[in-house]
Amino acid sequence: xxxxxxxxxxxxxxxxxxxxxxSSGGGGGGGGxxxxxxxxxxxxxxxxxxxxxxxxxxxxxxxxPGAKQGGTVNVLQRDAFTHLDPAQIYYADQLTVQMLYNRxxxxxxxxxxxxxxxxxxxxxxxxxxxxxGKTWTYTLKDNLKFEDGTPIxxxxxxQAVERLYAPWATDGPLYIPQWLSGEGQEFRKALPDGxxxxxxxxxxxxxxxxxxTIVFHFQQPHADTPYAVAMPNVGAxxxxxGKDTGKKYDTHPVSSGPYKIEALKAGKQLTLxxxxxxxxxxxxxxxxxxxxxxxxxxxxxxxSGRRLLADRGSDKNAMSFTNAVTIEVGPSVKGDxxxxxxxxxxxxxxVDYMAINMARIKDKKVREALAYALxxxxxxxxxxxxxxxxxxxxxxxxxxxxxxxxxxxxKKTKPNGDPVKAKALLKEGGKEGQExxxxxxxxxxxxxxxxxxxxxxxxxxxxxxxxEIDSNNYSTxxxxxxxxxxxxxxxxxxxxxxxSTVVPPLFDGRGVADGGQNYWLxxxxxxxAEIDRIKAISDVKTxxxxxxxxxxxxxxxxxxxxxxxxxxxxxxxxxxxxxxKYHSVYGTADPTxxxxx
Length: 597
Fold this sequence. Notes:
Layout: E1 2-3, E2 10-13, E3 16-19, E4 21-24, E5 49-51, E6 72-76, H1 92-101, E7 106-110, E8 116-120, E9 128-130, E10 135-139, H2 154-162, H3 175-181, E11 206-210, E12 213-217, H4 225-228, E13 259-265, E14 269-274, E15 292-296, H5 301-310, E16 318-319, H6 330-335, H7 337-341, E17 343-356, H8 364-373, H9 376-381, E18 389-391, H10 419-428, E19 435-441, H11 444-459, E20 463-469, H12 474-478, E21 487-496, H13 503-507, H14 525-535, H15 540-557, E22 561-572, E23 577-578, E24 581-583, E25 588-590, E26 595-596
Parallel strand pairs: 1-4, 5-8, 6-15, 6-16, 19-20, 19-21
Antiparallel strand pairs: 2-3, 4-21, 7-8, 9-10, 10-12, 11-12, 13-14, 14-15, 17-21, 17-22, 18-22, 23-26, 24-25
């Protein structure tokens, strides 16, 4: 998963795969670089995940204590949502909002303590496996309907999957189509136009033998299928009636959840209202307490923090999915008992990186110089130091199964960089004064970060050209192959806590494409071969260790990115709402049980 805000885990327990991943939306915290990190358990650990039963998958969701019907929840967000179409969603802010209008085959039931249970959402359970792990069968629940009252059938799930083959569907996770039809971009050859010209995948690949049954026939065994079909793009999209408008579906996806889109003002506002055709008896996760969610974009994080701390007027009934408490208001939140009672500060599954464009920075010595020069601690300090995260030494988050605390570039021992070592590497390679085009989003926090980054790189002997990008377009710009950028911020969290949801999406050269997650444009046949070898390992625990080893090799032998910090999310909300909790899979504030007091 991808994390825009500062701009998702697997374990094996008694034979059951427990997993979370994506790009994040949040993180942050005031208090200053030297302040103590918050105390409390890390809810993102793999051992907190489990597979639910068929009984766990039935609705309605347990009532939230004190919850009431009615009212409007105001949501303050910094960035407009790049996508609303579930096929294109992979950022934490969008993963969070889609929970209100979109349902997938399975999904996550998160309790107040952060315990995560994967359950059937549209499906009756987490799936039935056969053929040695290659075939997975799902049955749809009764009384599932779209917002217009049309019944949801297996054909609508097939539509959701097959549209991922269309050439425009590049921004979301691609586990299922790749497992069905081939790695990298090879899978698109199986259905080049998606389902839009009347063609479908053969039943030997994706079968819908009746209106309630979906059968996936994968090329290889995949024990983690229950988690892959929890991604938002493996849900239901209307197959009939011309409601699937392809790329234009982004502006108004048809709801299968408790809320539907009433209005969208591009870049300014999104309004969600009740979906009267949602059946709570079929939904083990979501509630429908408020009448409306009024989401406003363009609210910078320091501003949302001040407003929610002040707790006046309509802001009493406000929250943010991903905007964080920042250094400007952090001390006040920590020192105010009322504000502290309506906030949380939790570990996220995301790692922030400085991505290096290997198509432009081809000299490994220059990439190593960048790795030594970057001031991780100072960057983290702009967000609030330990309240915002922890300096990272490697590419994978500590929540991942098999993680090891390595630090090949000494980021933890010298958190503000090693300009002497960096300068020596540049001199050694004859690249003194190397120009670096550094891109960053035009947010308050990243404008401050750009200053410390530029100063550190110049001190190490680089010449820096700063390039500011509108934060609403940032995710699109950094995902282009032909970007005229040398380094930029990126973030990633495991889709479930195993390295298979980190290394292949980020570093498989066959996945290089506009909108893809291989931000560094790494193309190496040896890396690709290792990815294929590890994917063939059937034992998840063994594979987990191998993914960690490969990530270490990629970091030291190729240096495609510099790990900066492991994220935290510090959220605050108004006193007029209740039911806010931390969604430990997405690393955001969970809106599914929120109510107006």
